[in-house]
Amino acid sequence: MQGKILPPVLALVLSLCFVGGGPLTVRAESRKLAVGISALSAGYSPLYIAKGGGFFEKFGLDVDLILMESSPIVHGLIAGDVKLAGVGATRIVASNVEGSGILILSAMNDRQPYVLLVPPEIKEPSQLKGKKVGVAQFGGLDDTAMRFALLKLGLNPEKDVTIIQAGGKATRFSALQKGALSAIVIDPPYTLAAKKLGLHFLFDFIESSPKTVYGTVSAKDSFIKQNPDTIRNFLKAYITAIQFYKAHKPESIKIMAKYMRIDMPAKAEEMEETYNAFVRAQKCKPYIEKENVQNLLNELGERMPKARTADPQRFVNMQFLKDLDDSGFIDSACKEN
């Protein structure tokens, strides 16, 4: 990947980590974009494939995918240092409730490919009472998912368990195995390791959760307004990558593994588990339904009173997708792959 010197505001926030490397030479006239991603998750596979498969380049964009935490991404979008981002919808909607002006332009799917994982000795939800459960960050996507699962299982997240910030997925998974945590929310490929270790899935989000907004692409309203061609071309690359992802499994797994920093072929089984889970929920047309945003607002309303009365349409901009759909672009991209 070609390097990019970012403004000091981001350099001071954390050490930025460039994700993967673009295999192709970028044309001189390409528009350079810093695009943040909040985790090395398969939820951002269309972004990896758009980068690694050359689709950004095809539509005149030179994209740097930058791994950073959710809060700095939001601040970067507001400041203009980050132009677009893949970050949890809960974080974006919460920031918009407070007036950030960040809008969601598309979503990979409307189901979270998560499970609530517990040790084998925990068979019933009531056995979690008084126990510690772990999330990455308060207010993040897995925190929201954890609280939702606990509520659905008849537990009060504020009273029946102690929710702690316990680090990244690998750290939380290890803590669960060692008995330091009694429940975590995970997605593939950790689900494969969990099955082999005899750990128990207490709640399956794909099967049991309401529709939500997952694997988003977001941007500041002012950037969208001032750069409609860039947004349109970005979404063209993103949509083309989605169709490629659905139609080309081996090639997609190879690109995903590279950008997620998974050792191949040693982890081929884990990557197949990941691909199969995420592609099952992948939408051909990445629209966001009003109901899905409302479900997020309902969850946020528990701790953000202003979210309870917010209009769900205020948080999305579907016009670009609609224009591309009406023009036949999305159907054409699907046929090509």
Give a written overview of the molecule.
The protein has two domains: 8-110 and 213-336, Periplasmic binding protein-like II (D-Maltodextrin-Binding Protein, domain 2, 3-Layer(aba) Sandwich), CATH 3.40.190.10; 115-208, Periplasmic binding protein-like II (D-Maltodextrin-Binding Protein, domain 2), CATH 3.40.190.10. It is 45% helix and 16% strand. It has 16 helices and eleven strands. The protein has helices at residues 8-13, 45-52, 55-58, 70-79, 89-97, 141-152, 169-178, 190-197, 205-208, 221-226, 228-247, 249-260, 268-281, 290-300, 319-326, 329-336, and strands at residues 17-18, 31-37, 61-67, 84-86, 102-109, 115-118, 132-135, 162-165, 183-186, 200-204, 214-220. The strands form two sheets. It has a six-stranded mixed beta sheet with strand order 1-3-2-4-11-5, sandwiched between helices. Strands 8-7-9-6-10 form a five-stranded mixed beta sheet, with helices on both faces. The radius of gyration is 19 Å and the shape is globular. The chain starts with 7 loop residues before the first helix and ends with a helix.
- The structure class reads alpha/beta
- State Rg: 19 Å
Kindly report the name of the CATH homologous superfamily of the largest domain.
Periplasmic binding protein-like II
Multimerization state:
single chain
